[in-house]
Amino acid sequence: MLNLALSMSRLGCGVGTQKGRGRSGRQFNYVPGNCDDLDFRHLDVLKRKKCRWRGVELVEGETNAPFGNHRTVNVSSPSENLPRARRLLWEPGGNMAAPGARSRSLSGLLPAQTSLEYALLDAVTQQEKNSLVYQYLQKVDGWEQDLSVPEFPEGLEWLNTEEPISVYKDLCGKIVILDFFTYCCINCIHLLPDLRALEHTYSDKDGLLIISVHSAKFPNEKVLDNIKSAVLRYNITHPVVNDADASLWQELEISCWPTLVILGPRGNMLFSLIGEGHKDKLFLYTSIALKYYKDRGQIRDDKIGIKLYKDSLPPSPLLFPGKVTVDQVTNRLVIADTGHHRILVVWKNGQIQYSIGGPNPGRKDGIFSESTFNSPQGVAIMNNTIYVADTENHLIRKIDLEAEKVSTVAGIGIQGTDKEGGAQGEQQPISSPWDVVFGTSGPEVQRDDILWIAMAGTHQIWALLLDSGKLPKKNELTKGTCLRFAGSGNEENRNNAYPHKAAFAQPSGLSLASEDPWSCLFVADSESSTVRTISLKDGAVKHLVGGERDPMNLFAFGDVDGVGINAKLQHPLGVTWDKKRNLLYVADSYNHKIKVVDPKTKHCTTLAGTGDTNNVTSSSFTESTFNEPGGLCIGENGQLLYVADTNNHQIKVMDLETKMVSVLPIFRSENVVVDGPFLVEKQKTLPKLPKSAPNIRLSPMTACAGQTLQFKLRLDLPSGSKLTEGVPSCWFLTAEGNEWLLQGQIPSGDIENISNQPTVSLQIPKDCLSLEAIVSISVFLYYCSADSSACMMKAVLFSQPLQITDTQQGCIAPVELRYVF
């Protein structure tokens, strides 16, 4: 007997279960409605070649897969064990059958495409392959009735287009590729370079159009603004439609992210490709489809109206910063400015010291002015050396700040599939590293000699030996070795005392607690919505918070404070260890919150963030907001928590003692050379204050250097009035004669909602040029009466005298700036 264990992990995709649409892990053994769609006509060929095809693994006897409902085929008489519809394809001389007249799902394509793909296995030359695909299209095109894709439902939200697209009005005469994706999925991210390459080869004038159909896994991913951010982060330049209710997904019975569906010029389905890693087939099927229908005069060269969302955005100093870390020696910050494809080294006041890479993606080592990165994420700094997870280049890079040079220490520049490793770093292929952190190979080692890597692309934790040493349960390893430490490579939430039998689901954040009794790595395991630990003594992988006990269920997410498995997270991307308090901070990214975990009790609670994505720039922890924060780190001896507030394009500073949140201003001084771009949003011009504007002088305040002051606006409009739409009300921070006070501060901002007014923040510089100053806050409100019959502008000026002292002051309560117009 030959046991057929279906493993969708070999396809590189997220899958659904019989319980419903969604990803339950990439290990996908016989789920009803899927195995029956396989064609085993060339099973003897597969066995002889010992190859794997479309996720079918041929294994003699039993398998150790977690499901018991495998489909078993008797090789001597295989058709006895196959579904009746597929048995016809098994018989010698069997022909491709047309789908049922009412079929609109991908299952109608599978019999025909299965036969084609078996035939392609035996094709040797490119001419043979082209001929087989051409013949396939002749047969499919000759079916009595097209296998037609449903029309896009009305009312869907579109991006990168001038207007909504209709399959049967706008796409006639085009070969169309529908890319079903969800933006959290690493396999979907891996597919994007293939689609870009295809778009560079064929344009809409050639008859090709790609449309990405976003079908969300997480509730947070259904929100259009979050999809907009993903479109910008991943530089998607073709049309994207938000299928929030997954209507098209369900009609086509799709079960896996990503899935590509290739349509002909009549909206007729021609091919489907499941998972990543099918670039050759994608190009083959597309090129021959274009040729086939051009030969018949059915391809049109008219253009589709494209309007890129990114063209409407203002520039900003940071663009989707993914991770941040702190140099504990100098208190400098290292920021992965992911959207600008660069690394920033900044002083703690936000002034840039180095900008390396950008503005465009690339892969080049060398001096700072020549070096390039591609969507870098994790960063770690030690002794003037920075290690970077260069995610979309599939590399680990090293930045030498003294020599001002960048080099590659792991990866070969293309996505790897190796799940074991063991080669020297520069020869070892790796896949989408997402975070890095330093560690030691043993308690007796006095220096950091290991770089731990969250390898999101293969769902594992890897190690790069910075010096010769040993890993738990490993022999001595030479310097430069790069290898798997924990994780089988299956996408699961599986804990195990044996690190290689455990499994992760897109690990995206790492932090180290080297001291006893912890002695572990903390892992933000994003797709399982958990935080896990890996023992540095024996490699055992254990659960900390989030998720559930079923290792295959990757849908146990939510926003619940609690203990252990009763706590719920949603796609956490970052963790950092607070050695001073023995607490772990978590960037609960899709809940837009920062949470804190006590690893001793497993108690997880919300520390900051309301869950709202509005950008409140300065506030208390309880009023603060974030938008998909991706990374965080501890600085200032445990006083400050720096947060990469990714979709707000900011680094936010959380003071763990005063419980206040502020924004770190990013700026450069005149004498600093910045190699990458520095796009500065144009500052507002301070309007002239009306003579009628009241000047409210506040009580003098004493503050010390380095202290942060908060001013809360509390303004009331006349009854029934409302802010004027389209005219931004605003505030300005000034210090006439003492402009040194404002260096690196945010000098102005908008007031968008009278019921949710901003807090103005001012950090007293460490080096003060005067011990007395007056800080002024001007507010300009544009508002209309309830019936909009009268609109006006009013202003008010608040003046705050300051006494600056060297004596450390206690916590200063926020000052409320109240006025009724």
Strand-helix topology:
Layout: E1 2-6, E2 14-15, H1 43-49, E3 56-60, E4 71-73, H2 84-90, H3 110-122, H4 126-141, E5 157-159, H5 167-170, E6 175-181, H6 186-201, E7 208-214, H7 224-233, E8 240-242, H8 247-252, E9 256-257, E10 259-263, E11 269-274, H9 279-295, E12 323-326, E13 333-337, E14 342-346, E15 352-357, E16 366-367, E17 379-382, E18 385-390, E19 395-400, E20 405-410, E21 421-424, E22 433-439, E23 450-455, E24 460-465, E25 481-486, E26 507-513, E27 520-525, E28 530-535, E29 541-546, E30 562-563, E31 574-578, E32 583-588, E33 593-598, E34 603-608, E35 619-620, E36 631-635, E37 640-645, E38 650-655, E39 660-663, E40 695-697, E41 701-704, E42 708-716, E43 722-723, E44 729-734, E45 748-751, E46 759-763, E47 772-784, E48 791-805, E49 815-820
Parallel strand pairs: 6-7, 7-8, 40-48, 41-48, 42-49
Antiparallel strand pairs: 1-3, 1-4, 2-9, 5-8, 6-10, 10-11, 12-13, 13-14, 14-15, 16-20, 17-18, 18-19, 19-20, 21-25, 22-23, 23-24, 24-25, 26-27, 27-28, 28-29, 30-34, 31-32, 32-33, 33-34, 35-39, 36-37, 37-38, 38-39, 42-46, 43-47, 44-45, 44-47, 47-48
Helix pairs in contact: 3-4, 4-9
SS-based class: mainly beta
Distance between the termini: 85 Å
Helix proportion range = 10-25%
Q: Strand share of the residues? A: 25-35%
Low-confidence stretches: 1-11, 15-97, 670-682
Number of strands: 49
Report the major sheet: 7 strands, mixed
Number of helices: 9
* Overall average residue pLDDT: 84
Organism: Callithrix jacchus
Keywords: Cytoplasm, Repeat
Subcellular location: Cytoplasm, Cytosol
Protein name: NHL repeat-containing protein 2
